[in-house]
Amino acid sequence: MDGLQVLSALCLITCLLQRTSPAPSTSSSTPGLTHGIVIDAGSSGSRVRVYSVQYEDSLPRVEEIGNLRVKPGLAEFATRLTEVAEYLNPLLLRAQELVPRAQWPTTPIYLMSTAGLRLVDAAQSSQLFTEVRGIFSNKTACPFLFQHRDQARVLSGEEEGVYTWITVNYLREYFGKGRPYSDTHGILEMGGASTQIAFIPTTPILANKFYVSMAGEKYPLYAHSYLYFGATYMDIRVKAFLAAESPGSTELEDPCMLTGDVKHQPAPNRTDTDSLQFIGTGNSTACEAILETFQRQTPTEFCYPKPCAIGDIYQPVLPEHMLFTAVSAYVYAPAALGALEDDRTLTPRILREKALLYIQKNLTEAIEQIGESRRQYASAYAMMGLYLPMLLQRSYGFHSDSTQVIATNDVDGKGIAWTLGALLYELESGMLTSSRPTGNPDPCNASGRTSHHLSALYTALMVVLQGICLQFLVRL
Q1: Beta bridge partners of 447
Q2: Which residues are annotated as a binding site for ATP?
Q3: Where in the sequence is the active site (predicted)?
């Protein structure tokens, strides 16, 4: 075959490839998947969320179709392994009700635990998850798709923050539109045990960098989780601080509690008493002084990389105009204190001013303001009203009059749950059909990058072949 025949054949092959062979897809979602199940194993309870999945364009359409919550938290069974199957059974039965029977074998199920189980002894946690995986692998107990061990695991706090970030921006219909990073929302999340922050900074990320791939685009996130900085544990830390300051006392004054409120708490490290009594004094100055001790920054010379938020934890400077969606504990106290604008804007200065007025009330007066149904949270709102502005300003770097924070638990009526982001991440990263790497999970989409590179290689090859053919035709 001479050179002319070779070039003719090459051009013919190029045309046939263009007409019959689409470029490799950049989406790694699993075709044919119609449902997904995620169990959120929280500190006070576990909730199963069942999602429908439809494939449209470059991003799957995922919607929650039902859920069920059971109490207590899974951590309660760390030393009662024989009761785990009975505990999970109502959640599995609810999922079976919502997913058509024919889809059970192909519907993936996940159980992901948050901060509550991060606090459990490592050996006990390992045994607990071995038990859970055994139940999920038993097709009689769990008829759903359970492929690999990491479908049941403890999330890192950073993963929880990243998944919440995905959820918020997915519900806001950001992905797949070619919009700039500045249009994304950062997220602020606080549960009982930990608090998370995640956003795309405008400066290079020097630590805590996570990549998220959605609809063929890759997003570089900063994410960090602070364990023991959640709403419940901050109250525990305040009381532990007070107990340490008065080691011989069994009755302690708590400046972060309302006057007239009294609480009892176990004293595990005391030999003279089994419990301590905390009496509210409603002293905002003393309360803020205690809260400040937990949020001190390390001296500049020990902060590396810079800048630092709490202690020596690095955090990039917040983008000046980026909005942040704040969920869970960021919503409850500000809403109860009347500190949110009509559009749910949370301004640190306004929240602190409302809290300073509220903490001056006694318990009876406070209940008149917030309602009898919230009695058990009356003093918690006082502490949180002072804690949140300090966290936002002193630690994260928001200005006192900033209007960047939107405190809400929904987007256009759709609830914000990290479980949605977790399922989207699994769908987009191709984790449903291949084994997940062992070790510390990193939200970094390797398979997404591979398919993207294949697509780019295919396109480049077609361009080269077209160029050769064009030169050949011109010479003819």
Answers
A1: none
A2: 192-196
A3: 160 (proton acceptor)
Residue finishing a domain among 390, 412, 434: 412
Annotated binding site: 192-196
Residues in the chain: 476
Give the other-Cβ count within 10 Å of 391's Cβ.
26
Taking the CB of residue 261, how many other CB atoms lie within 10 A of it?
21
Report, as an integer, the average pLDDT of 1-21. Answer: 46
Concerning whether 160 is annotated as a catalytic residue, the answer is: yes
CA angle 223, 224, 226 (to 5 degrees): 160
Q: Which of 131, 159, 160, 426 is catalytic?
A: 160
Q: Is 167 a domain residue? A: yes
DSSP-derived 3-state class of residue 210:
strand
Other C-beta atoms closer than 10 Å to the C-beta of 87 total 19
- Amino acid residing at 116: G
Residues 373 and 256 in one domain: yes
> Into how many domains does the chain fold?
3
Is residue 421 located within the same domain as residue 346? no
Give the tens place of pLDDT for each residue, 365-393: 999 999 999 999 999 999 999 999 999 99
Assess whether 66 and 199 both reside in one domain. yes
